[in-house]
């Protein structure tokens, strides 16, 4: 799908506030409401907009420790990778799971938990019990000063 400047502005605006009304969106990008709504529906139908969700405040939920975890696997087979992925996507602590290349690790996980005690429990009772996990390297987030939208104008 070829995106013009209106489409790009719509994507950027909806990433910042997916709850704005069509009228508010149209006003923001200087387009009348009908063509604006038509463009939003085209972006949804094309799959560029996959959905709308609430962004939760992790700290207010008591989740104060975020970690990036590099996972090494003992075997590089589709069966081993599929089994690992099935396990980790079921863990509520795992926000993201990525199969990666260019590192000594096979996977990169983004995990959020209440505190270091919860992290230890997650690590020892869940993550390292998955068959095939041969190495774990954790990095803890101290600060997240910037989070970008996916698409910018």
TrEMBL record:
Pfam families reported in the protein's UniProt record: AsnC_trans_reg, HTH_24
Transmembrane regions: none
GO biological process: regulation of DNA-templated transcription; response to amino acid
Residue span(s) of domain HTH asnC-type: 3-64
One GO cellular component term noted in the UniProt record for this chain: cytosol
Tree of life domain: Bacteria
GO molecular function: sequence-specific DNA binding
Keywords, in A-Z order: DNA-binding, Transcription, Transcription regulation
PANTHER family, sorted: LEUCINE-RESPONSIVE REGULATORY PROTEIN, TRANSCRIPTIONAL REGULATOR AZLB
Protein name: Lrp/AsnC family transcriptional regulator, leucine-responsive regulatory protein
Taxonomic source organism: Marinagarivorans cellulosilyticus
């Amino acid at each position: 799908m070829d995106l013009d400047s209106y489409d790009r502005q719509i994507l950027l605006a909806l990433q910042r506030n997916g709850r704005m009304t069509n009228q508010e969106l149209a006003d923001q990008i200087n387009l009348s409401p009908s063509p604006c709504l038509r463009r939003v529906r085209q972006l949804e139908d094309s799959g560029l907009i996959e959905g709308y969700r609430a962004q939760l405040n992790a700290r207010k939920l008591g989740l104060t420790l975020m970690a990036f975890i590099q996972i090494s696997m003992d075997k590089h087979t589709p069966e081993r990778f599929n089994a690992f992925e099935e396990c980790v996507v079921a863990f509520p602590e795992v926000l993201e799971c990525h199969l990666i290349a260019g590192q000594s690790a096979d996977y990169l996980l983004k995990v959020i938990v209440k505190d270091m005690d919860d992290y230890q429990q997650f690590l020892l009772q869940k993550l390292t019990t998955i068959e095939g996990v041969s190495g774990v390297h954790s990095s803890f987030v101290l600060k997240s000063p910037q989070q970008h939208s996916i698409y910018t104008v």
